[in-house]
Specification:
The structure holds two protein chains of two kinds. By secondary structure, chain A is mainly β. Helix content of chain A is 0%, strand content 47%. In chain A, 35% of the residues are buried. Chain B is mostly beta strands. Chain B is globular. Classes of the chains: A mainly beta, B mainly beta.
Chain lengths: 113, 110
Amino acid sequence: GAGVSQSPSNKVTEKGKDVELRCDPISGHTALYWYRQSLGQGLEFLIYFQGNSAPDKSGLPSDRFSAERTGGSVSTLTIQRTQQEDSAVYLCASRGDLYNEQFFGPGTRLTVL
Amino acid sequence: KNEVEQSPQNLTAQEGEFITINCSYSVGISALHWLQQHPGGGIVSLFMLSSGKKKHGRLIATINIQEKHSSLHITASHPRDSAVYICAVKYGGSQGNLIFGKGTKLSVKP
């Protein structure tokens, strides 16, 4: 596609359930980032994938959060045993090799009841 | 403590006014981004700069490396400019992730 896509656009889940959020980056982009934006807060870095290198997981808030990127393209962010404080908009961005500019997806709004 | 500070936090302007949003950061960076987030949540990258000045339409972004400061200017503001404007920096030693300011919420009244 022409841009970064994310699915679902909205997800409502019950506390304790696991959720998976998907990101389809721009074709050919080797770098992929996950961020989240909690209500009233700024954007927060979660995890970064660059090609075949080990991901930078330094932003993941707890071991309930994990992400993978299969085949260097699609990425899935998994949150296990969701808590109410996990409610946020989860944004994905991708970046090509030539420029430093990141292109953002529309985000997934996660609500944990 | 947020390493990227934006001001003002909120800004209300009348249509046609010249608008300035400021961003300051604490250590050397390799790039600074200005992003626009619309009420629906979508984020658009406006500028990426590491020195000097860039212009796109009514938007101008400047950066002063020595003062660790950047400004985003909007000339002849319009209600459709209403959005949250976010400054984000990439520090030289980082692998690429951005550090974000908390954003400036701009509302332009007709």
